[in-house]
């Protein structure tokens, strides 16, 4: 089963498919850190609410894994969902979301 990842409301990141569930994270403030999501295929995504000062979730590809397919971009606050959507091919085993992280230099 394929998997898609997107934001919902202003505080949820949704996972539908081989990986299923949601992660709660309110990132509505100007200084909010994105959620970093790593997948079993090695893909790394950055997810944050407030794309370009809009009420839209931004999903960015940081590193592409073998099962990553694409991100459908969104710039419409009235879209359903009002979020970029990441798509994966069949076969993901797991995903981890880090809401607190820091860069090691």
Describe the structure.
The chain has 105 residues and is an all-beta fold. The chain has one domain. The protein has strands spanning 3-8, 12-16, 21-24, 35-39, 44-49, 57-63, 68-72, 85-88, 95-98. A five-stranded antiparallel β-sheet has the order 3-2-1-8-7, with no helix packed on it. It starts with a strand and ends in a 7-residue tail after the last strand.
Helix and strand topology:
Layout: E1 3-8, E2 12-16, E3 21-24, E4 35-39, E5 44-49, E6 57-63, E7 68-72, E8 85-88, E9 95-98
Antiparallel strand pairs: 1-2, 1-8, 2-3, 4-5, 4-9, 5-6, 7-8
Give the rounded overall mean pLDDT.
92
Order of helices and strands: EEEEEEEEE
Low-confidence stretches: none
Radius of gyration: 13 Å
State the end-to-end CA separation. 38 Å
Structural class: mainly beta
Q: How many independent structural domains?
A: 1
Summarize the structure.
By secondary structure, this protein is an all-beta fold. Helices cover 0% and strands 44% of the residues. The protein has one domain (3-98).
């Amino acid at each position: 089963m394929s998997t898609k990842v997107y934001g919902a409301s202003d505080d949820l990141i949704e996972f539908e498919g081989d990986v299923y569930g949601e992660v709660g994270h309110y990132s509505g403030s100007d200084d909010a850190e994105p959620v970093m999501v790593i997948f079993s295929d090695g893909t790394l995504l950055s997810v944050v609410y407030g794309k370009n000062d809009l009420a839209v979730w931004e999903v960015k590809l940081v590193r592409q894994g073998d099962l990553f397919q694409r991100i459908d971009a969104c710039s419409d606050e009235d879209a359903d969902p009002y979020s970029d959507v990441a798509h994966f091919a069949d076969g993901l085993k797991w995903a981890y979301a880090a809401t607190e992280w820091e860069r090691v230099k």
